[in-house]
Amino acid sequence: MDFHLRLKKLREQVAAKRLDALLVSHLPNIRYLCGFTGGAGFLLLSDSGFVFFTDVRYDMQSRTEVKGARVIIARKALLAAVAEWLWTHRKRARQWTIGIDAEHLTVAEKKRLADLLPSGVRLRNAPALVEQARMTKDEDELEQIRRAVQLGASLFDRAVQVLRPGVKESEVAAEMEYAARRAGAEEMSFPTIIASGPRSALPHGRASDQAIAAGSFVVCDFGVILHGYCSDEARTVWVGDPSGVIAKDARDAYEAVKEAQQTAMAAVRSGVTAGEVDAAARKVLRKTGLAKYFRHSTGHGVGLEIHEAPRIAVSQKEVLKPGMVITIEPGVYFPGKWGVRIEDMVVVKEGGCEVMTPTSKDFTAV
Amino acid sequence: MDFHLRLKKLREQVAAKRLDALLVSHLPNIRYLCGFTGGAGFLLLSDSGFVFFTDVRYDMQSRTEVKGARVIIARKALLAAVAEWLWTHRKRARQWTIGIDAEHLTVAEKKRLADLLPSGVRLRNAPALVEQARMTKDEDELEQIRRAVQLGASLFDRAVQVLRPGVKESEVAAEMEYAARRAGAEEMSFPTIIASGPRSALPHGRASDQAIAAGSFVVCDFGVILHGYCSDEARTVWVGDPSGVIAKDARDAYEAVKEAQQTAMAAVRSGVTAGEVDAAARKVLRKTGLAKYFRHSTGHGVGLEIHEAPRIAVSQKEVLKPGMVITIEPGVYFPGKWGVRIEDMVVVKEGGCEVMTPTSKDFTAV
After folding, report:
1. Which 56-95 residues of chain A touch chain B by CB within 8 A?
2. Can the peptide bond before residue B358 be classed as cis, meaning omega within 30 degrees of 0?
3. Which regions of chain A does DSSP assign to beta strands (E)?
């Protein structure tokens, strides 16, 4: 990862925003900028370069991992160490404005820091510069994400092997998560969703102790973290006889969601807005009267975090750019009955997109 | 869980703090108060009772889970829905002061909410009333935590079965996590730490692809979430011949940490401060010159979150009370060499404590 380039770009942006310094507090942003993977830290950018503050638990780890920043192991609370550094390095001659990460710094953290600052130093809510930069992935990142997506996709094969009537949802999740670990995943990127029967109508139905019953869908939504980067995929399978009369509506809904998903993917290219991609999915579902059962957004960015910018949702003005990695995941949900969702990850390209997820979308019954 | 009682107590405390309302934003606090287990929501307490705001993804789920609060499914951003409710229900005749959860609400969230509020309604940082209440567990919670601790402890037996020279740290973690899922755990309470060789000197050395080598310690620190409640346990095992000259120092350090851990547990009882328990552990290590290698705190509260109040650390004034559940986990770490940590969970009682973790602490070699 080219941490040097990332830090250089950020430094230019901070200068352009007329900030004297920027305090980065969100850990995925810190990892993106300097490589630290631990659980506590602040990264301060100023005229004096980058300084990374962490605590004794991460002493050895930070010295190995952190690139492009001086490491300070705080002997006190981290924000107190930041304030102490500012006391030592402030420019007495003039006001100093420090940008803070308002979307992540808590009200209490801001107050604790403000109370410790020297006079002449003030805090200002900074725009989400690092999140903006993270939206567009570089080649190193795309390669990591492709590997995570490939590993993630292999878990669905495992799910289909074990998914049968009578098996608990949590058992299917257990087999997938075990396979993920054995294949080198650090952890799952979110709690595995294995939602069967009426639970498949819950968009966030994480695997429960419920036994899977025939005559309904099972929504499988899952992802891994590999070398820090997330994957996200969803497939929906029918359990039981797919030819019966009960399955007819289900098959129709499945095919409509599949068409909506493919149409939305076909709409992805550099220059269109996120809202246009969302609209493409909804338009297909409107044809068959299913749009009102599609109640969540069409997708989201994925990278160091499972949910990051941009949001692919109604009226979103964000213009897609080459290198953005997003999910396309329309779904329809009939409360008390069942639901269907199909989700792939794609990379935005100049004239279209690269579909990362290799898994088949053919209607599948087990 | 007695949500009714929890809500009633909170209502009394909010009145005593001269707040007209309280906006609870931290999800574990919301789960504690009204039972919601999903991933997005705000709980507002006011004269009109409790109102819970969530989005369409949690429509069915919130209606099933939430006790003691009216559920509003927001059609817009959640904080905009909260503001809209306040516009409708404000008392025109007087000022309204709404307490916010300053340790969890972000600077940006506070600004978005403040910008939408009617005049006469203002926000004030509220004390951590819910965290305070959560420190002392009721019988239902203790029962859940005991079950989580029992399940967690069974994973160490699995670790000892597979932990051998040449096996990867991540393979040990995979077997433990698989066993956890099969036994009904929802997920691990934190990324499993299997830290072997020099990595055992990292207090947060999560399982890597490194193969375990003989002639060193392996620190195993792991926990599960069962019905929402966390477990946390650490054991350290020697890999290879325990009788050799290399192992002599290691055995001595192990026995010192074990004595420190047991002495700190013996110091736990209602009425002592968290700092006194921490000091008890350090005093033992000072006898053998090891205190300077014990660089983290002695423990922390555990419940719906893996780290919650109280902190068991140097000079902490918090007085322990019956029903508090805490970890006792001293460790010593020799950078580049190895580390040892031993951790149990205990419940504070009137004259002492109940040790929840059943696992033996005898020096073990595999």
Report:
1. 56-61
2. no
3. 21-24, 42-46, 49-55, 70-74, 96-100, 121-125, 187-188, 193-196, 216-222, 224-226, 229-230, 233-239, 299-301, 308-312, 325-328, 331-334, 338-341, 344-348, 353-355
> Is B102 close to A104, i.e. CB distance below 8 A?
no
**Residue from B330, B348, B325 nearest B340 by CA:** B330
The answer to whether B60 contacts A102, with C-beta atoms less than 8 Å apart, is no
Contact B295 A57 (CB under 8 A): yes
Residue A45 has pLDDT above 80, yes or no: yes
The angle formed by the CA atoms of residues A229, A231 and A235, to the nearest 5 degrees, is 175
Which residues, 6 or more positions from B15, have their beta carbon under 8 angstroms from its beta carbon? none
Mean pLDDT (10-residue bins), chain B, 366 residues: 93 93 97 96 93 93 95 94 91 83 95 92 94 97 98 98 96 97 94 95 90 96 97 97 84 97 98 98 97 96 98 97 98 94 98 98 94
Question: Which pLDDT score is estimated for B93?
Answer: 63
Q: How far is CA A140 from CA A188, A326, A348, A356, B146, in A?
A: 21, 17, 16, 15, 45
Q: Using alpha carbons, select from A275, A256, A277, A235 the residue that is nearest to residue A361.
A: A235
For the domain with range A3-133, which CATH number is right: 3.40.50.300, 3.40.350.10, 2.60.120.260, 3.40.630.30?
A: 3.40.350.10
Fold category of A139-365 in CATH: Creatine Amidinohydrolase (3.90.230)
**ipTM of the modeled complex:** 0.90
Range(s) within chain B of domains with CATH label 3.90.230.10? 139-365
pLDDT in the model for residue B359: 98
Closest CA to A55 of A72, A73, A70, A39: A73
Give me the pLDDT at residue A1, please.
85
Q: Under an 8 A CB cutoff, do A105 and B107 touch? A: yes
Which strands make up the sheet holding A187-188, listed edge to edge?
A187-188, A224-226, A229-230
Provide the whole-model pTM. 0.93
Q: Residue A39: its chain B contacts at CB < 8 A?
A: 204
Q: Does A125 touch chain B (CB under 8 A)?
A: yes
A190, closest residue in chain B (CA to CA): B187
A245 touches chain B (CB under 8 A): no
Task: Identify the pLDDT of residue B24.
Answer: 98
